[in-house]
């Protein structure tokens, strides 16, 4: 009923940590067939068996996930293995160090280097398991394909929602001062107030950001198709307590 290519593709999604329900919806293959294939399939290669799909340092993983979804990518090495690269602006040396620390916490023992580019650095780490840890990796640009968390990632985000928000803001967001004017008693006065912005072209990543804010009780509004604004005083205070500006 299903061809070998469809079977291989579906089992690859299952091995990456996707649930049978999500793979069934995505491929159109019944859950019964997926379950039977998973039982009968030949043993996975050693790399797949050892793949650390569930990081032990869940808080640092949630933060690194935010950085990856904002400004990260994974590329394969011609001779095997994969590079994780996360872009960090030169203006934020503290962010560069936080990113390096998170990479090491998630994959202890891996090498991490900083490659200078124009106006930014690429925090880079080589390890064969990065695609296992970030199954959102795929061909093409993020905003041109579906981005969804697998079940074990969702569990980590639910346990450490602020760390995900912090990673997303540190990668594709900012805290700045906004201003407006009001006329009181015939006198025009200027008022300033802090505001957080998050910008991303991917509707799926924007939705992940706002859904997580909802669970945390942070009020937000959509400034435009690619920008989320947090400006209410109580919500900004929450963001200041758990995220803070980049440095």
Q: What report would you give on this structure?
A:
The protein is α+β, with helices and mostly antiparallel strands and 247 residues long. The protein folds into three domains: 4-42; 58-143, Homing endonucleases (Endonuclease I-creI), CATH 3.10.28.10; 164-242, Roll (Endonuclease I-creI). Helices cover 45% and strands 24% of the residues. It has a four-stranded antiparallel sheet with strand order 1-2-4-3. A four-stranded antiparallel sheet has the order 5-6-8-7. The chain is globular.
CATH architecture of the largest domain, by name, is Roll
Uncertain runs? 41-49
Query: Any idea of the CATH topology of the largest domain?
Result: Endonuclease I-creI
CATH superfamily of the largest domain, called what? Homing endonucleases
Largest beta-sheet details: 4 strands, antiparallel
| Sheet/helix structural class | alpha+beta
Percent helix, as a range, is: 40-55%
Order of helices and strands: HHHHHEEHEEHHHEEHEEH
Rounded Rg: 21 Å
Strand order of the largest sheet: 1-2-4-3
User: What's the CATH class label of the largest domain?
Assistant: Alpha Beta
Beta-strand percentage range: 15-25%
Cα separation of the termini: 56 Å
Mean pLDDT reading:
87
């Amino acid at each position: 009923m299903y061809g070998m290519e469809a079977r291989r593709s579906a089992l690859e999604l299952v091995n990456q940590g996707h649930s049978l329900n999500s793979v069934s919806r995505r491929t159109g293959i019944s859950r019964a067939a997926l379950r039977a294939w998973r039982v009968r399939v030949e043993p996975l290669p050693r790399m797949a068996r050892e793949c650390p799909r569930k990081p032990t340092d869940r808080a640092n993983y949630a933060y690194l996930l935010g950085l990856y979804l904002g400004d990260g990518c994974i590329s394969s090495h011609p001779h095997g293995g994969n590079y994780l690269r996360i872009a960090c602006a030169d203006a934020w040396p503290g962010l560069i160090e936080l990113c390096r620390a998170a990479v090491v916490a998630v994959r202890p023992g891996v090498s991490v280097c900083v490659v200078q580019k124009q106006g930014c650095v690429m925090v880079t780490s080589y390890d064969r398991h990065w695609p296992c840890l970030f199954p959102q990796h795929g061909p093409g640009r993020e905003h041109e394909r579906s981005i969804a968390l697998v079940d074990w990632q969702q569990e980590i985000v639910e346990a450490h929602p602020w760390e995900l928000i912090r990673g997303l803001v540190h990668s594709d967001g900012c805290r700045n001062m906004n201003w407006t004017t009001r006329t009181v008693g015939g006198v025009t006065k200027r008022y300033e107030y802090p505001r957080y912005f998050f910008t991303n072209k991917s509707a799926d990543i924007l939705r992940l950001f706002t859904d997580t804010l909802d669970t945390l009780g942070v009020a937000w509004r959509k400034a435009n198709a690619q920008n989320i604004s947090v400006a209410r005083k109580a919500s900004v205070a929450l963001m200041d307590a758990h995220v803070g500006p980049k440095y």
